[in-house]
């Protein structure tokens, strides 16, 4: 499609013989929130790391905003923001210092970085804690800082790797509302989560991964229709139907 | 380049905020310096307290005690007979000078008297040195008394008052002491006269090496926490990240060294302004080499524990071979192995600058070795450095 902002074609990546990503292909339209679901070890994070130019694929192609992630990673990094699953923060710095530092790393001047940092902290409801040391923040506040950093530099494409995992309902709801606001502003988002109702409400399309492959990809409605009445079936039912009920590590 | 510098500045800021890191890299060396200062009195070769029991209380006894107190490095502590005997009995003291009752009177009348050294065993090394000093003072007293007596007897019957004779003789004797006929000149043919000058450079280079090697753990920790990975999703290239970490290591080491050298300057007064600046320049090049080694360690270590242990073992082996704790005798196996230790060159050269007033030009071979280590370390670590396991 001419409007595709992200094009992923036949992506492969192995670690010591283990196929983490095995022939993954999908596209994301500009302004779309695309959900990548799957049990632990399905290959979601590896896919995101390849798209974010951290890992090189063994084979396959990734085009983001018209730039190849393997041939021109610097061009890709100029237009992406990443909110990793881990809390990748400097705990000895304040919230503001964290945001300003990462802002400088995405190419903002000192003044711009500070301005954007304050705006993002306001967005996350942390303006009053701007000068507080991150080490003293609650898990939910750290998650919000983690998210706010990803917004520095106004990226065109946002990778959100389980941004709401393990936090209190208030912080989760706050992050959720911010993603909704970003959606309304037309930001392109690749979103992974274990909260199926979030994916159902936010994503225009979702892909379900398992064993390094995409085993289903459709709108939430389309996926639910596959196994029953979409009004009664939940995305979680679809997920369990597709990936099975056996426990994963 | 600009982003690498911002990254380095951020690292230095983190270092200055980490209380544990600061305690380890600054407080610990300061405590070591303080212990040294206590041990060496911040100064020269001999420091001791002479314990004296004055049972006489006369003029010559007082003169003897005053003479002892004037000796550089000797502090006099007066004790009562009972206390001195008790402390000797308890092995609390090894050596006490007893000035017996009648000492001054006998010296004045007969020209000879007796001092008593009460000691445990041979009195210990300090006791033996004090004994020699006291014998020297006693001989000087004996000579002075002889001079007084001879002058008085020669001038007897001339009508000159004895007090006047004594004043003149005292003045002449003082002049003689101030300008002795035989002077002793000290010339160094190696090493340094000041122990503190020998140990401070070694301790300084040891802690800098220690801090930077153990500091490699921070990079491994960042890799585990994901901040390195996150940085790679910004516009920071791997090269900039690597260079930023290298500059950060140099920055951390330099801040640490500057504070320690400045403290040594203030407390031990072991520098001239020129030797201080030259020491800073020299240590800067040393830090550049150690920082490169630290990156090699961060690159090969998979876990923080591994980085810690490799850092500690490497540091200890390097400082021992570098002669930090004891003099390595020439021709020995340790001496040969020590040629492979970066600290050998750091310690030798820094001692030359501090104690012997050498210039940077005199320590060029050491500087070249550090530059070589830095270049090889950087190339090696850049080849094996991975910000994210399995990544670029």
Observed structural traits:
heterodimer; A: 249 residues; alpha/beta; Rossmann fold; 2 domains; 4-stranded antiparallel β-sheet; 36% helix; 25% strand; globular; B: 392 residues; mainly alpha; abc type-2 transporter like fold; 4-stranded mixed β-sheet; 15 helices; 4 strands; elongated
Description:
The complex is a heterodimer of chains A (249) and B (392). By secondary structure, chain A is an alpha/beta fold. Chain A has two domains: 1-79 and 156-249, P-loop containing nucleotide triphosphate hydrolases (Rossmann fold, 3-Layer(aba) Sandwich), CATH 3.40.50.300; 86-154. Helix content of chain A is 36%, strand content 25%. In chain A, the strands form two sheets. Chain A has a six-stranded mixed beta sheet, sandwiched between helices. Chain A has a four-stranded antiparallel beta sheet with strand order 2-1-4-5. In chain A, strand 7 (157-161), helix 6 (169-184) and strand 8 form a beta-alpha-beta unit. In chain A, helix 3 (95-105) crosses helix 4 (110-123) and helix 5 (139-150) packs parallel to helix 6. The radius of gyration of chain A is 18 Å and the shape is globular. Chain B folds into two domains: 2-41 and 193-384, no CATH class; 48-178, abc type-2 transporter like fold (3-Layer(aba) Sandwich). In chain B, 69% of the residues lie in helices and 5% in strands. Chain B has a four-stranded mixed beta sheet with strand order 2-1-3-4, sandwiched between helices. In chain B, helix 3 (59-70) crosses helix 6, helix 6 (124-154) packs across helix 7 and helix 14 (342-355) packs antiparallel against helix 15 (364-384). The interface between A and B is medium-sized, with 29 and 24 residues.
């Amino acid at each position: 499609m001419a409007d595709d902002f992200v094009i992923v074609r036949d992506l492969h990546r192995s670690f010591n013989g283990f196929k983490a990503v095995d022939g993954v292909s999908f596209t994301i339209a500009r302004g779309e929130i695309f959900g990548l679901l799957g049990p632990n070890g399905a290959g979601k994070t590896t896919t995101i790391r390849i798209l974010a130019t951290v890992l090189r694929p063994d084979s396959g192609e990734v085009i983001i905003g018209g730039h190849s992630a393997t041939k021109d990673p610097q061009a890709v990094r100029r237009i992406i923001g990443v909110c990793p699953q881990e809390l990748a923060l400097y705990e000895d710095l304040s919230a503001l210092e964290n945001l300003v530092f990462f802002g400088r790393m995405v190419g903002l001047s000192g003044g711009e970085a500070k301005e954007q940092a304050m705006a993002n902290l306001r967005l996350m409801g942390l303006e009053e804690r701007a000068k507080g040391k991150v080490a003293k923040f609650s898990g939910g506040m750290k998650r919000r800082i983690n998210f706010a950093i990803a917004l520095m530099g106004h990226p065109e494409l946002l990778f959100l790797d389980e941004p709401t995992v393990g936090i209190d309902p208030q912080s989760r709801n706050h992050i959720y509302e911010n993603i909704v606001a970003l959606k309304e502003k037309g930001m392109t988002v690749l979103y992974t989560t274990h909260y199926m109702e979030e994916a159902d409400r936010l994503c225009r399309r979702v892909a379900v991964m398992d064993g390094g492959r995409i085993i289903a990809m459709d709108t939430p409605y389309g996926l639910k229709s596959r196994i029953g009445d979409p009004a009664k079936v939940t995305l979680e039912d679809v997920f369990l139907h597709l990936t099975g009920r056996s426990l994963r590590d | 380049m600009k982003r690498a510098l911002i990254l380095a500045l951020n690292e230095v800021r983190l270092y200055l905020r980490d209380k544990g890191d600061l305690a380890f890299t600054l407080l610990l060396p300061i405590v070591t310096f303080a212990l040294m200062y206590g041990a060496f009195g911040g100064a020269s070769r001999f420091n001791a307290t002479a314990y004296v029991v004055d049972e006489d209380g006369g003029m010559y006894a007082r003169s003897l005690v005053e003479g002892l107190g004037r000796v550089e490095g000797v502090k006099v502590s007066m004790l009562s007979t009972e206390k001195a005997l008790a402390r000797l009995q308890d092995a609390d003291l090894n050596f006490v000078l007893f000035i017996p009752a009648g000492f001054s009177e006998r010296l004045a009348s007969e020209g000879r008297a007796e001092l008593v050294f009460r000691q445990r065993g041979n009195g210990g090394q300090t006791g033996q040195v004090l004994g020699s000093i006291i014998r020297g003072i006693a001989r000087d007293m004996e000579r002075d008394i002889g001079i007084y007596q001879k002058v008085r007897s020669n001038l007897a019957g001339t009508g000159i008052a004895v007090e006047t004779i004594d004043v003149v003789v005292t003045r002449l004797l003082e002049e003689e002491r101030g300008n002795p006929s035989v002077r002793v000149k000290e010339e160094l043919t190696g090493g340094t006269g000041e122990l503190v000058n020998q140990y401070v450079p070694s301790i300084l280079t040891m802690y800098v090496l220690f801090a930077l090697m153990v500091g490699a753990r921070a990079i491994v920790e960042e890799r585990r926490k994901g901040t390195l990975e996150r940085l790679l999703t910004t516009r920071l290239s791997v090269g900039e990240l690597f260079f930023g970490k290298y500059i950060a290591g140099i920055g951390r080491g330099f801040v640490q060294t500057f504070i320690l050298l400045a403290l040594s300057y203030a407390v031990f007064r072991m520098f001239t302004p020129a030797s201080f600046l030259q020491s800073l320049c020299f240590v800067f090049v040393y830090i550049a080499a150690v920082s490169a080694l630290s990156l090699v360690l961060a690159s090969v270590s998979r876990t923080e524990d591994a980085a810690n242990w490799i850092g500690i073992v490497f540091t200890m082996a390097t400082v021992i071979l570098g002669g930090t704790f004891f003099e390595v005798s020439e021709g020995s196996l340790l001496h040969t192995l020590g040629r492979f230790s970066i600290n050998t060159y750091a310690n030798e050269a820094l001692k030359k600058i501090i104690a012997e007033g050498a210039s940077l030009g005199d320590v060029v071979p050491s500087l070249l070795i550090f530059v070589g280590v830095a270049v090889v370390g950087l190339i090696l670590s850049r080849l094996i450095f991975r910000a994210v396991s399995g990544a670029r």
